[in-house]
Amino acid sequence: MKIENVTLFQIDKTSKISKLYSQREFDRLGMGITVEQWILLKIIEENDGLTQKELANKSLRDPASITRTLDLLNKKGFVERKPVEDNRRQYSICLTKKGESFIDKYMPLINSHRAKSIDGISQDDLNTLNRLLEKIQKNMG
Predict the structure, then answer these.
(1) Hey, which bits of the chain come out as E strands?
(2) Could you tell me the pTM of the whole model?
(3) DSSP 8-state class, residue 30
C-alpha cells in the first residue's frame, strides 16, 4: 500500500498543512506568536488555573516544551504563573488581561480558518469524521 493511502499519513499531512496555513496567516498579520503558542493560550483560556503538568497533558506536549513556551508567553505579557497553595513547586497558569484581549482580537481570524478548513463538507460528514477520528484516537491511546 502506498503511503498516500495510509489513513494515519493523511491525518498527519492534514495537520501539517493546517498548521503551515495558520502560521503563514499569523505571520502575515504580525501576530507575533506561533500556532503552538496560540493553542496553549486557548487551552489556558478554556481551563483557567491549570498547572503546567495539566497543560502538558491537555496539549499533548512534553513538560520541557511547555516550560519554554510559557516563558515566551509570559515575556509577551499574555500569561502569568501563580503559586499553588500548599505546593511551592507548582504554579497555576492564568491569562493576563493582555492575553484575554489578544484572544478576543484574533478569535475572528481563527474562526475564519476553521470555516475555510471545512468549506464544502456537510455537517453529517463532519460528524462522521469526528466520530472516526475519536475511534482512531481510542485505538491508538
Answers:
(1) 50-51, 79-84, 87-95
(2) 0.89
(3) T
